[in-house]
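S2.1 Query sequence (Potassium channel domain-containing protein)
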Amino acid sequence: MDKKSSRALILIISTFTYLLFGAYVFDLLESKADYELRDELTYIRYLLQKKYNFTTKDFSLFETIAVKSIPHKAGYQWKFAGAFYFSTVVITTVGYGHSAPETLAGRLFCMLFALAGIPLGLVMFQSIGERVNTMIASCLHRIRSLLRSCGFQILPKITPTHLIITSLSIGSTIILIGTYVFHRNERWTLFEAYYYCVITLSTIGFGDYVPLQKEGILQKDPVYVLFTLFFVLTGLAVFSACVNLLVLRFMASNTDPVSAAAREPPKTVVFELLASRTLASRSWDPQRKTSAYSSNYRVDK
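Output C-alpha cells follow.
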C-alpha cells in the first residue's frame, strides 16, 4: 500500500473512531436528560388532557398548531426579508429548519434553488477565503516592514501558520460580537448566544436557537435583520479562509513530486512574494505556461 492510500485509510479509521467517541459521550451526557424530558412531557400532556377534557386526537391537533405557529411569530416569513433570510440559510447549508416551503411549487423550486445555489455559495466562500488570506498576508508584510523600519526584527517570513492564527483571531472576534448582539436582542444567555454563533458558522444549524423569530421582527427591525445576514455571511467567509489554508497545507504535504510539478502552486500560499509584488503586478508567460513567480515558489515541509 502506497503512502497516500495508507493516509486515506488512517483518516477513515480516525474519523469513524471519532464518531464512535462522540456517540458515546453524547449518550453519556444527554440520555438521562432525554428520559426525564420525555417523562415530564408525558405528565404535562396528561394534566392538560384531564383539565381541558381534550381527546387524544384534539390534543395532537393542538400540538401541531402550536409547533407551526412558532415561525409566524417572526412576521411574514415569505415576504422579501424573510424569504431572503431563508435563501441565505439554504445556500450556506446552515438549514435551521425554522421554516420550510408548504406549496408543491415552492418545494420544487427550493430543490432546484439549492442544487444550483449550494455549489455557487461554496465557490463564492472559497474565492472570498483566498482573497482574505491574500489580504491578511499583505497586511502582515506591511506590519513586518513597518516594525523593521523601527528596529524590531521579527517574523523572518510569513507562513501559513501566521495566516491561520490571524484568521482564527478575526473569526473569534466576529463570534464575540455576534454573541453580545444576539444576547441583547434575543434575550439569550451569553452561553446560548455563543453556542448559536458557533453552531451557525460551522454550518451545523440545529435550529434549537434561531434569531429573528419573535415579535414580527422581520418587518419591524430591518437593521437587526441586516446584521444577522451580515454576521452569517462574513463569519462563513472568514472561516472559509481558515479551511482554505488547512486544506492547502494538507494537500501540499500529501502531494507526490510528479503531480506537484505538473500544476501551478496555489497562489494563496505564496506569502513571501507579497512582500515585493502586488496582485496587480503579476505577469503571465504564455510560452512557459506558468506564472512569472512560480519559479521562486517553495513550500516548506
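Residues 257-301 have pLDDT under 50 and may be disordered. The radius of gyration is 25 Å.
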